[in-house]
TrEMBL record:
Lineage of source species: Eukaryota, Metazoa, Ecdysozoa, Arthropoda, Crustacea
Bias-annotated ranges (Basic and acidic residues): 1-25, 35-73, 86-137, 182-201, 214-236
Lineage: superkingdom: Eukaryota
Region spans: Disordered: 1-236
Protein name, as recorded: Uncharacterized protein
């Protein structure tokens, strides 16, 4: 009977012990509870560990969050990296934007380069504009060159105009040369007129020579007329 009583006492003590352990484990600073939680959190698939990490990563100053962001931004196709780059490139004084623009402008078919060149060429003192104009003017069929030449030739003291006139006047069938000769020959003291008259008078069929002879024969004391009269007297 005494043994039976001690067994009953033990069975009565067990619920009390379990209840006491439960109260202890419900206490946050209970070593056993902490030890159990630590083991769980050290397991990679532990819900508590995931929950703890999630809370940490939701904090802006969390080292884990920074580490994760750092890994993501190190990847070229990372949305965070692209978003960060986009924000930087939208800033006018951003080195990345300047670098991107420089790469684009170094490409010959880049719209930005064309736009930049167009703005520069629209400036009157732009070296690019001068260089472009020079290249165009060096081309024989360039409208700018032709227009420039036309303006120069319309100026009386233009070297091009004078040079063109000189070449034309050196040509025998040049209207300018003929016109110049005509003006000179119409002048009484013109060497060309005298030379032309001399050549004509040396010709037997020259009208000027015949006219001159006729005038001379009309003078009574001209030797030619006297000679003619003497010949006529001899015939009679």
């Amino acid at each position: 009977a005494q043994d039976k009583m001690s067994v009953n006492e033990k069975s009565v003590e067990r619920p009390v012990k379990n209840s006491e352990r439960k109260r202890e484990e419900d206490n946050e600073e209970f070593p056993l509870k902490n030890s159990k939680r630590e083991r769980e959190e050290n397991s990679d698939d532990c819900p508590l560990k995931d929950s703890k990490r999630k809370r940490e990563e939701d904090s802006d100053d969390c080292p884990l969050k920074d580490s994760e962001r750092n890994r993501e931004e190190g990847s070229d196709d990372c949305p965070l990296k692209n978003s960060k780059r986009k924000r930087e490139e939208d800033s006018d004084d951003c080195p990345l934007k300047d670098s991107k623009r420089k790469r684009e402008e170094d490409s010959d078919d880049c719209p930005l380069k064309d736009s930049k060149r167009k703005r520069e060429e629209n400036s009157d003192d732009c070296p690019l504009k001068d260089s472009k104009r020079k290249r165009e003017e060096d081309s024989d069929d360039c409208p700018l060159k032709n227009s420039k030449r036309k303006r120069e030739k319309d100026s009386d003291d233009c070297p091009l105009k004078n040079s063109k006139r000189k070449r034309e006047q050196d040509s025998d069938d040049c209207p300018l040369k003929n016109s110049k000769r005509k003006r000179e020959e119409n002048s009484d003291d013109c060497p060309l007129k005298d030379s032309k008259r001399k050549r004509e008078e040396d010709s037997e069929v020259c009208l000027l020579k015949n006219s001159k002879r006729k005038r001379e024969e009309g003078i009574e004391d001209r030797p030619m007329k006297n000679n003619k009269r003497e010949r006529e007297d001899e015939e009679t």
